[in-house]
Amino acid sequence: MKNIKEQILLFIEESSKKSFSAEEIAEGLGLKKSADFKALVQTIAQMEREGTVIFNKKGKIKLPPKLVLVEGTFRANERGFGFVTVDPEEDDIYIPKEFTGYAMDGDIVAIDILKPSSPFGDRGAEGKVVEIRKRGISQIVGEFTLFSEEEIKETDLYGVVVPKDKKMGELKIYIAAEGIRPVDGNIVIVEITHYPEKGYATSLEGIVKKVIGHKNDPGMDILSIVVANGIPTQFPEDVLAQADAVPDTIDPEKFPERRDLRNQQIVTIDGEDAKDLDDAVTVRKLDNGNYFLGVHIADVSYYVTEDSKLDGEAFERGTSVYLTDRVIPMLPQRLSNGICSLNPKVPRLTMSCEMEIDKNGQVVSYDIFQSVIQTTERMTYTAVNKILDGDEETRRRYHELVKMFEEMAELHDILEKMRIQRGAVSFEDREAKVLVDPKGHPMDIVLRERGVGERLIESFMLAANETVAQHFAKQKLPFIYRIHEEPKEDKLRRFFDFASAIGILVKQTKGSITPKDLQQVVLDVADKPESMVINTMLLRSMQQAKYSEVNYGHYGLAAEYYTHFTSPIRRYPDLIVHRLIRSYTEDKSEENQALWAGKLPDIAVHSSQMERRAVDAEREVDAMKKAEFMADHIDEEFDGIISSVVKFGIFVELPNTIEGMIHISALKNDYFHFLENHLALVGERTGLTYKIGQKVRVKVVKADPTTREIDFELLSAEEVEPIKQDKKNKPAGRRGKREDKRPKNQKATQGRGKSKNKNKKNKKPFYKGIKKKGK
User: Fold this and answer.
1) What range does the domain containing 115 cover?
2) Dist. CA 340–CA 331, nearest whole Å
3) Do 293 and 394 share a domain, yes or no?
4) d(C-alpha 317, C-alpha 617), whole Å
């Protein structure tokens, strides 16, 4: 039969005709006997079931249309569906739950486009996974549950692991009875040996490669997230050995080629708990009325040399990761807290950018060079803010530095006004810090305050970053930039529609939207109730900043040139910028430029990916600790504000930045429609309206650190003007239809393809029917 199938396909492919009757195929293949014709008909019927041939409307046989497949990266959603990124510049393609083809997060897949995107609407393209070309995950972190000895003997499995990653919430990994045998409750790293397939959509098999610890160990919850995100927690021995070989001190006399700035009044200004001090500054007013600003950055590239073990590890990590109760550094602490840290009153190697800045905030001259400094004092933001606020005790303690700090504040005001004038978009920044006890349990959540001390350091770092970027861009030398591209047109259009729906007109400059236009919107609503709404929607319209070898400028800062030069202890791109400065100081040949031009694209892409990984881990830990904090406050009442409205409910943010959800099914007093243009839920009968920015009072009814979800009950809401439902405001969704982002409560399935109820009915252990593979 296989031979006949091949002949049929070959005959149709090589013929000029598109479709054939069974008789025509028989004649073409020389099948004249009745028995041969009967076999042919049976084969064609089977081929139709397999999808290798199809019948047209006239009943003739033809080949199915060839699929035009598109390749991209699959991103799973915890609700079962996913998205495929084909081009970072284009919208993702939606993959319904039934068409994911057993793909997992990070897989490279080939998809068939089922529905194209609508150019005149908000509907994106929809697709179906046809082939998994490369698996994106080879290891998974999860909690191990041990089988009984009887179960182990019958299944040849040690037990089952439930992944820590929420996007894999429905998956279970069955652990082969070989290698490491964990104890019940261990958090483990599993190497996947078999992936989901037909009949076993939520099951995997694997081998435990490492036991991280036990779920009840202090800090294990955070460590689980770190490991699940692929962030290394320990440095290899050869990397530590190389770090240990670096001297603890330097002799400035051995660096005659460096500019000696040890006689200058230079200080570091950081938080009280900072240990990796990588930037120091000095300011003085010049006789001509301009300001001298010196920004001195730890010269990490001197110690972390190209192609060394230290450099390879720093590249792989990409960035330090700052979590609730720990920092996972990019470099070993011997470097980050030792010789590379600009500790007070000891000589340190630095890369310096000195600038002369006029009263309009413009850099009129500058110099970038290698140097040696010795900081005068290790200042904190708190101390600087007290000095500027007039605290007499603090001013007496640092009397020799007070004049410089006052001049720093003056220069900061000038630089800030300059950035505002050119159109830099400044959003209200509310960042919270979770305070934990020695066991890692959250005790309080406090808002971080940003005084003049914090903001002036930011102004000085921005000035140095822009100056360095402009220097190399104008020389047309290969370089790495920090870019922030213009918002996408469709996202801005949605923002304009929303703004106009609540009565805010967004003015545009000559038909295009500039940062200054958006800044004006923020300023116009700063003192209005709509302020939070506009800030939220505008932030959602922005693209993510990233690294690039091509200078596209920084839209949010309204800066034509921008890079990251000021934090080489914790960011790899900054280290590369220092390396480029040194490299071009010594050699600007075409050969050296070509060498860097070949390296920088990969460095930029990888650094952006590692930054995204760190941000994801930081957000996951933050969400988990906030949920854990709220678990201690069940049934307590809080005032909040509606921060987001979606068709399945409303999200409420408390003053401490904690956000919880009120599902639409919990709004009992009416049926509610979602008006997308207004970001509001409106009652069908009462006209009762819940919209973004509205003040509410809520009660905490659920907080789950595992899922990182917090549920509120709505107690009361301030009265707002009802929104009339007209033809423009088409309702989308109503109470009772569950469209929550969270997975539905489903009956647990045990084993591969076996339901718990069915096994119970048959009085068989749940692991019966597990398919053994690879044994």
Assistant:
1) 70-134
2) 10
3) yes
4) 13
